Amino acid sequence: MNKILIADDHPLFLAGLKGALLNRLENTYIEHADSYLALFSKLQEDDGELDLLIMDLNMPGATGASGIYFLRQTYPELPIVVLSAHDSQDTRQECLQAGASEFLSKSVDINELVSSLTRIFAGEYQFPTAVGVTPLPSVQQRHYELLASLTPSQFKVLHLMANGDANKQIASTLNISEKTVKNHISAIFAKLGVSNRTQASKIFIEQEGR
């Protein structure tokens, strides 16, 4: 059975996509996440059983292409399909540079989408290192690598911190203690080579907004 995780925060679109895929793909199980936090949590819980991730770029806690890069480094064998309403050539290129296996517009015909997913399930796709994908600019690559050095838990703390959440809010959202939050923040500072929340958030936000 093929297991798909769809990450999208629009209930109607999600319901329509899930129904269409289940009607056309045999032996398929679909889970969903409506935010990046939920996405990271489900991936951590999945324990390597996921066959495909379909993700939108614009969800609560959006991390842009840096989130894709982080996911690619953390889950190197996981096919990642970006399905986005922002389907400009620049957006497509950046997603592929960051590690997406495929980039498709949300306006794509369902038959074309099913065809693409079927090829991916059959192993007929290339990873982002393939010929034809322009390398990332060196500075952006370095920032992505710094972010990718974080653990999934640290990455979640960072993007909540970049959102302006205080330690108490972060602890409540992630269901951890404030002491654990402080420990994560100290580790984040060390890995990113920064000394305060503003500097750490700047690295994160600059990559998100590119």
Provide an overview of this structure:
By secondary structure, the chain is an alpha/beta fold. The protein has two domains: 2-121, Response regulator (Rossmann fold); 138-208, Arc Repressor Mutant, subunit A (Orthogonal Bundle), CATH 1.10.10. It has helices at 11-24, 36-46, 64-74, 89-98, 110-121, 138-148, 152-162, 167-174, 178-192, 197-208, and strands at 2-7, 28-33, 52-55, 80-84, 102-105. The chain has a five-stranded parallel beta sheet with strand order 2-1-3-4-5, sandwiched between helices. Helix 7 packs across helix 9 and helix 7 (152-162) crosses helix 10. The protein is globular and about 50 Å long. The mean pLDDT is 85.
- Biggest sheet strand line-up: 2-1-3-4-5
Task: Using the alpha-carbon principal axes, give the shape.
Answer: globular
Question: What is the number of strand segments?
Answer: 5
- The pLDDT mean sits at 85
Structural class: alpha/beta
CATH fold name of the largest domain: Rossmann fold
Spell out the key features of this protein:
5-stranded parallel β-sheet, 12% strand, globular, 210 residues, Rossmann fold, Arc Repressor Mutant, subunit A, alpha/beta, 5 strands
List the SSEs and their pairings.
Layout lengths: L1 E6 L3 H14 L3 E6 L2 H11 L5 E4 L8 H11 L5 E5 L4 H10 L3 E4 L4 H12 L16 H11 L3 H11 L4 H8 L3 H15 L4 H12 L2
Parallel strand pairs: 1-2, 1-3, 3-4, 4-5
